[in-house]
Amino acid sequence: MRLLVTGGAGFIGANFVHATVRDHPEARVTVLDALTYAGSRESLAPVVDAVHLVHGDIGDAELVGKLVAESDAVVHFAAETHVDNSLTDPEAFLRTNVVGTFTILEAVRRHGIRLHHVSTDEVYGDLPLGEPVRFTEATPYNPSSPYSSTKAASDMLVRSWVRSYGVRATISNCSNNYGPYQHVEKFIPRQITNVLTGRRPKLYGEGANVRDWIHVADHNRAVWRILSDGEPGRTYLIGADGERDNLTVMRTLLRLMGRDPDDFDHVADRAGHDLRYAIDPSALRDELGWAPLHDDFESGLAATIQWYRDNDSWWRPLKDASEATYEERNQ
């Protein structure tokens, strides 16, 4: 298979490329990435000799058309993803997440290429705290932020291109990922690297917001299963039954790093902060036989902490700029 991976130098995309090179040596992988602040060549360093990296924008129709024409399938990770950034600069999210996805869709339509579109559970909005309800494929979209609204728009584009033009596409909506190569602006790596650099960890509000955590390796195994066996036109939800409130995650992380579990600062809550996410992955499990391997969150978190300890040269150049941005926002 000739596989085009958009956003393959970012967090989830780079982990997908690493896993593909390891587990699917028959695949010829091309990565298209704009190499913004959130994507880097260094994230692909372990597989640099096994992939072809193209530095380019998914909004570049000529480039995208050429790369898609040379591919058998496209896995579309490329997106602006940080909610805080979407609140201060929504235009960038519109360009990448909506116009970029449109460009990919037109290319796969023109060349008849299989597409898998990677999305987020945030398109569904949030759920009440303390209730057993979870997101399903039938949950109505109710996005809360510029980020989630642009991802919802991109999902709708994919669905309409499937129905109107017969594009062979699947969609996956996944819960919160953690693991190696995640940018230090995100919750878990921010707190890990705060501790490693002598800063106090920061928690939005009271930390009651609940997220459904999944290790990035399990997410990417699910993406491969959907790409291989998923039914075109279907949406599959990816989750690992990993619900925890942010306060619990913070205290667990600090305990694993040998710190007092209450050694952190509360900061002003994010505007429009979603209360709770929870995924029902029944279709993926029952129909495609997928199940998470990293089902012990604490051991997965410990391994992630160790990765950041061992890869100081990867994240340290990003840290000061990221914290300066948070300081400007009083976060």
TrEMBL record:
<dbReference type="InterPro" id="IPR016040">
    <property type="entry name" value="NAD(P)-bd_dom"/>
</dbReference>
<dbReference type="InterPro" id="IPR036291">
    <property type="entry name" value="NAD(P)-bd_dom_sf"/>
</dbReference>
<keyword id="KW-0456">Lyase</keyword>
<dbReference type="InterPro" id="IPR005888">
    <property type="entry name" value="dTDP_Gluc_deHydtase"/>
</dbReference>
<dbReference type="Pfam" id="PF16363">
    <property type="entry name" value="GDP_Man_Dehyd"/>
</dbReference>
<feature type="domain" description="NAD(P)-binding">
    <location>
        <begin position="4"/>
        <end position="293"/>
    </location>
</feature>
<keyword id="KW-0520">NAD</keyword>
<protein>
    <recommendedName>
        <fullName>dTDP-glucose 4,6-dehydratase</fullName>
        <ecNumber>4.2.1.46</ecNumber>
    </recommendedName>
</protein>
<dbReference type="GO" id="GO:0009225">
    <property type="term" value="P:nucleotide-sugar metabolic process"/>
</dbReference>
<dbReference type="GO" id="GO:0008460">
    <property type="term" value="F:dTDP-glucose 4,6-dehydratase activity"/>
</dbReference>
<comment type="similarity">
    <text>Belongs to the NAD(P)-dependent epimerase/dehydratase family. dTDP-glucose dehydratase subfamily.</text>
</comment>
